[in-house]
Amino acid sequence: MAARAPSLVLRLVIALATVSVLLTGVAAVALDALYRGLAFEARREVLDAQVIALIATAELGDSGALAPTAIAEPRLASPGSGLIAEIRDGAGGRTWRSPSMAGAGARLEARPAAGQRIYEPLTLPDGSRFIALSLGVRWETGGSPPATYVFSAAESLEPYYAELARVRAWLAAGAVVMMLLLVVGLTMALRAGLRPLARLERQIREMEEGRRELLDPDWPRELAGVTGNLNALVEGERGRLARYRSTLGNLAHSLKTPIAALKGLIDGGGLTPLSARPELDRMQSIVDHQLRRAVLGGTGSSVASAELKPPLEQLAEALAKVYRGKRVDCELVVPAGLAYPIEAGDLMELAGNLLDNAHKYGRRRVRVSARPLEGPGWRRPGVLLDVEDDGPGIAASERLKVLERGVRADETLPGQGIGLSAARDVVVAYGGTIEIGDSALGGARVRVRLPGR
Amino acid sequence: MRVLVLEDEPVLREMLARRLRESGLVVDTAADGVEGEYAGREFPIDVAVVDLGLPGKSGLEVIRAWRAAGGSFPILVLTARDRWQEKVEALQAGADDYVTKPFQFEEVHARLQALLRRAGGWSQPVLRSGPVELDPRSQQVRVADKPVELTAFEYRLLEYLMLHAGQVVSKSELTDKLYEQDYDRDSNVIEVFVGRLRRKLDPDGLLQPIETLRGRGYRMTRE
User: Fold this and answer.
1) What is the ipTM of this complex?
2) To probe the interface with B, which of A283, A324, A357, A421 has the most B CB atoms within 10 Å?
3) Do B83 and A348 touch (CB under 8 A)?
4) Does domain B127-220 have CATH number 1.10.10.10?
5) Are A325 and B123 in contact (CB < 8 Å)?
6) What is the pLDDT of residues A41-74, one digit of tens each?
7) What residue ranges in A79-233 does DSSP mark as E strands?
8) How many H-runs (helices) and E-runs (strands) does chain A carry?
9) What's the predicted TM-score (pTM) here?
10) Where are the alpha helices (DSSP H) in A194-220?
11) Set of chain A residues whose Cβ sits within 8 Å of the Cβ of B91
12) A48, A152, A157, B37: which has the fewest C-beta neighbours closer than 10 Å?
């Protein structure tokens, strides 16, 4: 047994899950970056405000050191609050530091020029991370030349990092839950979507077991092609089987009469070559007829279109040989490219019998003409085929009988027409009609109409 | 006239051979394609009857091989499956006519006669050479409208000469075509029979229908 291919559901779930894992990952990274960006922005605004407040309240004290006169922000007053500030002079010496810096051991080193802002990360000896802003300010002092001071403020990032960790945990949990929901949902959706396949499988099994004739007609669009073709195939095969059965039935049934007649001859002691001959001939004609029907090729949609001219030319050539002694002038009026979906052997059988008859009964001339046949609702044209000769023709009263020869076992007409009934079998198998009329050439005209589609 | 019968079914083959001999032909037989192809190439046959469904080599292949080797004698095909496709194939391969099985011997015989006539250039069923008339269908010979009784061998001799009317036919050719195998190679026998035939056709020696060309053979006058 061949290894089983992975199920369609499994394939789709794996493929879609892989895609969604990637998408969720990208989304998580993007959300993380966005959150961090927003948090930093917020902190910069806080530091800016603190530094501006310091500048607004700073004054030169009695000792000549620059210091704020009042501290509005309570966090600057309490050590460990996470917000610190200091003021340095141009030489780097501290002129003021906030009470909250007590014991923190923080060292702010940036030396921005006047009007310049420098943001920098800062790690305290105890490991806590800060972000610092230093702003250079040119300070006018009465009399002496202006000096540059640096106002700095820094805020702890620890609460932010704690929050970030929480956000990340939530993001991860959300992604996992989403994934699970996605896989479960997809599996269910696919199961539901592929249910018609399971139904198809069930129905085919039922057909196999003989509990079902055909597949249901209602299928999703994606399956309708497959099921439609399958039904056509099954119906074609069924038709063929029915034809074989009826052929066998007809054969057996119609052979009974001549067999009975022969038995009668044997029992009555009247069996002679002469008396047996008609019965044997009858049996022969029955077998011929049923055999012809049995070997007729496919007449379903599976037959490819074949051009009519080449086989007709071959036939005319072959018959010219057979009737060489008669010197028949056989004229073909068939447009090049005219095609019809008929099996090559069937076309040969149809045209062969008609042309043979025409050669046989015609005196000098035979004409074969074909042309496309239009019909209501046909997208592809049918074909009209005329075979004419200049022979004696067929009497109107004989025309139907000639075509029926061999069809009814109890009927045997002498002379003409074995070929015509053979041609008729082919025409009937293709759903066409055949009729005998008079030809402008003076003899019979056999007209065959094969329907279009 | 020498005919090759190529048929694998023994009953049919023997029936054909017997009836064809009875009708005055010299008959060679073969039961399979390989043997038959050899016979057709090596024997001086005038016509062949070939069954299409042969063991060894199909009838179609045999016909193609004969034609490819330059054999120009007429070929009559016997076919059991009377599908036109098969008939056309056989005719395209080089056959000249066909008979569908089961057949009546008379049909095969008539077709063979027609093929032989056509090969000899005759288009009428009755062969005529001056006042001499030969009808192969009834095997009747008339001179100036009076029937002439011939023995089977005399008839065969006349038929061969008439079918080849206008051509010179050598004594050895006549021995080949009128006797089975290498039955009797003595050409004196032919001379004797030609002499008898002349007396029967032309008792008064006025018509001279059969010319003798010394050292070359005989010639039947054509018209």
Assistant:
1) 0.75
2) A324
3) yes
4) yes
5) yes
6) 888 898 999 899 888 888 877 777 788 887 878 8
7) 83-88, 94-97, 117-123, 129-139, 147-156
8) 9, 14
9) 0.57
10) 195-208
11) 317-318, 321-322
12) A48
